[in-house]
Structure formats: C-alpha cells, structure tokens
Request: fold
Amino acid sequence: MAASIIDGRAIAKKVRAEVAEEVERFKKVHGYPPGLAVIIVGDDPASRVYVGSKKRMCEALGIYSEEYALPASTTQEELIGTIRNLNNNKKIHGILVQLPLPDHLDEGEVLETIDPRKDVDGFHPISVGNFVVGKEAFVPCTPLGVLRLIKETGIEIKGKKAVVVGRSNIVGKPAAMLLLANHATVTICHSRTEGLPGVCREADILVAAIGRPEMLDGSYIKPGAVVIDVGVNEVGRTEEGKRILVGDVKFDEAKEIASHITPVPGGVGPMTIAMLMRNTMDAAWRQAGKGGCGCSCK
Ligand code: NDP
Reply:
C-alpha cells in the first residue's frame, strides 16, 4: 500500500495558528508582542527571499520584527556592534543572522556574539551544549520541524530505530539529538559510512539530510518506515524559469515501501520558518520570566 504523505504545508499552518494564538495570549499578559530581529549582510537573492518571508510571517502572526539589511562591505566590528545593540534591545527577543555571510566575516564569532537567550536559530555553542545535556535551550528550526512532522504521524518514537543520514550542525546532528531525547535508538550516517543501504534498511524512522538528489532509492527503505526528506536539490528549471526541486529520497520508489513520507517540496521546507516563529515565541516567554509556552507543541 502506498505511504501516507506527510503534508508539511498543512502542519506548518497548524504550528503558525498555535503561535498566533500564543502571541495574543502573551500580549494580553505583558502588553507588548514578541520581537524578532533579522540581520542580512550583502545582497544574495536567495537570502533576501528568505528574510522577506520571515518578515511577512512575523507580521501575519503578530510578532514585532526589525530587519537590518547591511551592505556586503560591512566589517566584522560593525556586524558585532549591531548584534550587541540587539542583545540589549528590550523589544527584541530573538536574533537571527541570515547565513551564509560574505567570506570576509567570521561566522563563528558572529554567531557567538548573539545572547544565547535570544539565539532562536540555536546555533550558539551554549545552546548546543545545553541542548545536548538536556537543559532548556533553543534547537535549530529545521530539525524541530522534522520532529514535529514525525510526531504528527502519530507513531511512537520511543524505542524505535532511527537513522539520520547527514551530520551537519544545522540539520543532521540536532535531528539525531532530538530523536535521542525522544527515546529513539539513533544511528548517524555520513559520507564515510560503510554499507549505508543496509544501515538505512534497519530504520523505523529514516531522516535524509544529505543534499544529494534522490540518492536514497527504494533499496534504502524498510517496509513501513517513516521517511523524512530534508534535502532540497535543484535539478533544473521549467520553461518559465521556476526551480525544479527534488529531495534526497527517490520519492516514487520510497512511497511504495514506507508507511509515511514527506514530499519535496511541501514537506520539511515549510516547517522551518514556522518553527522559527515557535522559537521566537518561546524566547519571549523565557525573557519575560515564564519558562516557555508550557504546551506540548514540540
Ligand atoms: P551539509 O552539506 O552541511 O551536510 C550534508 C551531510 O550529508 C554531511 O554530513 C555529509 O557527510 C553527508 N553526505 C554527503 N554525501 C553523502 C553520501 N554519499 N553518503 C552519506 N552521507 C553523505 O548539508 P545540510 O545538512 O546543511 O543540508 C542537507 C540537505 O538539507 C541539503 O539538501 C539542504 O539544502 C537541505 N536543507 C533543507 C532545509 C529546509 O528547510 N528544508 C534547511 C537546511 C538544509 P560528511 O559529514 O561526511 O561530509
């Protein structure tokens, strides 16, 4: 039987509705909205599109936002100065620096300048460390989206074998840590993993975060597995110039074997911004002295 398609657009909409409701509750209690600042350096067209959609999403949910569009010539000192000002800005609860940064800027130092209480992308080493030891911390948005999608299938994660292919700090590692925190038995694979198809075929939950178009075909999938495809790979353009995207999983083959599967596009992609809004909301609660939203949304 063909797999159920996990509808990331619909689930992201649900997350946004939850956050919008909470924003209203927060405003009633505190008299001001949660605030997010987004910093972009240079004029990379894709980054501009992402920043634009983050701003529009904030507006739609009632979150206050500030955008800092800095020229490509911005120095390290200027960028760090902007972040320090935002660290002290009471209207701002979350700070996001759009990556990648121009080559002359030191990304590590920039990310470490963000106050960990405002680190809604979850990239600060303090956030990573707190998360790994099980303390309250921000977790990167895409893996949070992955977890939410798995939870929405209704399958129990506890005790399941999960395999994550990819070990980046942004997706693979935090996705694996989230599954571990939810009591899965987790294997992390990467480019040097031997016997990858066999390892993947053991997985009740398979997360692909590789960046290789349709690399995982049907031979990697265990019958009945939940398959989450994080990959976004452009394989061409339509006549109208629209990007043709595929994931890391060969969808047509995998959907005949899996029990649940995410499409690309329309799976993990829409979740990332929704989870950024979720993290911004949590940042505002925490800074206002309330420990998160207290709901079971994650
Ligand atoms: P990275 O390039 O940082 O990491 C890719 C990982 O895949 C690495 O750990 C690499 O292993 C591993 N890998 C590469 N080739 C193979 C192979 N042949 N066999 C096994 N493992 C392999 O990518 P990201 O984690 O940043 O992103 C992964 C994908 O997710 C990309 O397609 C990206 O576009 C997409 N993405 C989607 C997002 C969304 O919102 N939907 C957000 C972020 C990313 P090694 O470490 O050994 O090099």
In short: The CA atoms of residues 165 and 189 lie 5 Å apart. The chain has ten helices and eleven strands. Residues 294-298 have pLDDT under 50 and may be disordered. The domain at 30-116 is CATH 3.40.50.10860 (Rossmann fold).
